[in-house]
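DM from R.C. (forwarded with permission)

"hey, sorry to bug you on a friday — could you get me a structure for this? deadline for the figure draft is monday and I only need the backbone to look sensible"
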Amino acid sequence: MAEADDAAKGMLRQFRAVPAGVKWLIYLSTPSTISYGYLIIAISAYFPEIGFSSGDIGILLGANGLSFAISAIPIGILADRRGKKTIFLLGLFSIPPLIFVYAMTVDMLILTIASVVAGVSEGAFMATWNALIADQTALTTRSAAFSLSFIVGNAGFGIGMAVPSVFPIVESWTGYTSEDVHTLAFVAMSLLALSSPLALVPVLRGFREEIHPPETMPTDERREGRKLLYKFSAINSLIGLGAGFIIPLIPTWLYLKFGVTDELSGPLLTVSNVTIALAALVSPTLGNKYGLVRAIVLTQSLSTVFMLSLAFVPDAALAATLYLIRAALMNMASPLADTFLMGIIPKEERGFASALNAIVWRLPNSASTIVGGAILAADLYDVPFYLATGFYLVSIWLFFTVFRDVKPKG
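My reply, with the result:
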């Protein structure tokens, strides 16, 4: 017991070295993350309740993803040239009014426009978040910083997705309808999201960015950085492609194979978020012990074993357990991968790198989810896991082969 306590204290102690400014950046962004988590679950789970078709939901989510994919790279390039913190704050300030729109109307056209703008806001966040953390940390503390970001971000998003679970209690206490409670929640989440940029303005005022446009870099240095970025993103896209076949469809798979409804699969996803967040506590320790590349390969390889095992599970309880372990192991590598990428890319191009890497993961992930849904509809419940495993193994092998001798520089 004493050894376990010492290990736990050691994992928490690693976060002390994270600069105070970075900690405040992470903590004060949480209200916005919670609000965005609620928005996503409300669109996918509440809107069908008030008459939106699955096609309407697909349009709203698809418009969000498409606008993100189109805008993220230009925003990342702009952030590298004009300053990341300004773009970051503009993205956060745009989220509250977008959530408020969902409280005021159910007009499909207006909501689609709001979804498009929300995708652009997410693009501003994704293009600047990792870069802002990397710019304020040294290589020795960056893994801990990204792990803390990953933990707090997943916890916040999970809290947002879990908010509707208390609505039946609120309805019984107040006599309000489900529509009343959801509308009030949209308003409350809009105000909550506003607290993040308002609180971060004074925090980021003290952060002085040194803006050096990529054009000022030596040509060879820029070319080498781009080459590493393209290799990293191409390999990472295979993980996104493989995951898309089944991971977004886990609730659907549980229902089709075992008859598990959203009353159980919803809480499972919330528990998964918490498990993922806790697992990231171990990430810096693994990175320090084995090195970033080997730690990433180790955790992703173990995760792939549990991914494949899901194709053979006989009951829902075992499936849920194996899924939680798989998710924890796979996402344990995420802070390490962020640390590695930000360390091999010149500081002048971190915004572009963050945006590109996010896009090349999301686009193939979205495409393979469509294929995965068709496979499940054909009652081939094990095939998506075989496909995901195959792409995972190729990606892991390529990553180790290409990057095993590459060392982050700063």
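R.C.: lifesaver. Residues 1-8 have pLDDT under 50 and may be disordered.
me: no worries. The first helix runs from residue 2 to 13.
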